[in-house]
Amino acid sequence: MKKITFGSLIFILAFSLLLSACGTQSNSGAEGEKNGDNKTLRVVTDANYAPFESMDKGEVVGFDIDFVKAVAEEAGYAVKIESVGWDPVFAELQSKSADLGVSAITINDDRKKTYDFSVPYFLSTQKILVPENSDIKSAEDLKGKRVAVQNATTGQEAAEGLLGKNSKDIKKFDNNNLAIMEMTSGGADAVVADNTVIEEYAKNNPNQKLKVIEDDTFENEYYGLMFPKDSELKEKFDKAINEVFDNGTYSKIYEDHFKIEPEIDLLKEQQ
Ligand code: ARG
């Protein structure tokens, strides 16, 4: 009697282990189906913009990447993230060959004509990167200097606001790292780009002897996830972003990357 009980106990244990393993699998499938349509979204970026997106051993990494993964998971979607370059991010979303863009993209009225944006997820502003011994001390000082920017960014717009739209002194590059290289190799006097990016660059490259200049005349900018116009994803992702704001996930990712707490209330005020 005892023997049989022991044997059947082992059998029941093994059998229930097997069941629970199957259970986990089918649950996660059902979960995906329940929340989203279980589709893997094609997410495009320009991974030349650390700490938001950069390449590490063939993989796209950064704050934006961790953020978009967390939000997509919350919304019930898997994502496949590909670095396609800055202009192609816009082209692919316009032609709908990608589902969403994450690329430290500033929400602005001009882009809103062609694309939909999520609620804001990051506060940014322009700053100026110059060699340590530069006499440039403010945005005003950029007039008459050669300014390198990434093409079709709000950095270019800011430079145009100061130097004039068709100024020959504005040098435009396909990505921000090329703009910085132009300055460090002497082809430009300054770079105008998003504060976090140039601060990170100056900090990580102390041997290049650079400094970052801030100027109150540069406006606040807010990053959003970008979708093709009328994408049904916008609503789902807005909901998921608010979810990760409220459940601590956003703060965790933010603190991992920036070592300070995010001002979530400030972002929410913009909704
Ligand atoms: N925030 C700026 C803009 O939207 C620059 C973004 C550049 N991002 C990038 N991954 N290269 O225009």
From TrEMBL:
Which GO MF terms are attached to this record?
ligand-gated monoatomic ion channel activity
Using the record's annotation, list all stretches that form the Ionotropic glutamate receptor C-terminal domain.
Answer: 40-260
Q: Where is the Solute-binding protein family 3/N-terminal domain?
A: 40-261
Cite the entry's keywords alphabetically.
Answer: Lipoprotein, Palmitate, Signal
Q: Name the SUPFAM superfamilies for this protein.
A: Periplasmic binding protein-like II (SSF53850)
Provide the protein's localization: Cell membrane
Query: Main localization of the protein?
Result: membrane
Membrane topology classification:
Lipid-anchor
What is the top-level taxon of the source organism?
Answer: Bacteria
The UniProt record lists the keyword Lipoprotein: yes
Gene Ontology CC annotations of this record: plasma membrane
Keyword Zinc assigned to the entry: answer is no
Any signal peptide, and if so, which residues? Answer: 1-21
The record's family statement is: Belongs to the bacterial solute-binding protein 3 family.
Under which name does UniProt file this protein?
Glutamine ABC transporter substrate-binding protein
Q: Which organism is it from?
A: Bacillus gobiensis
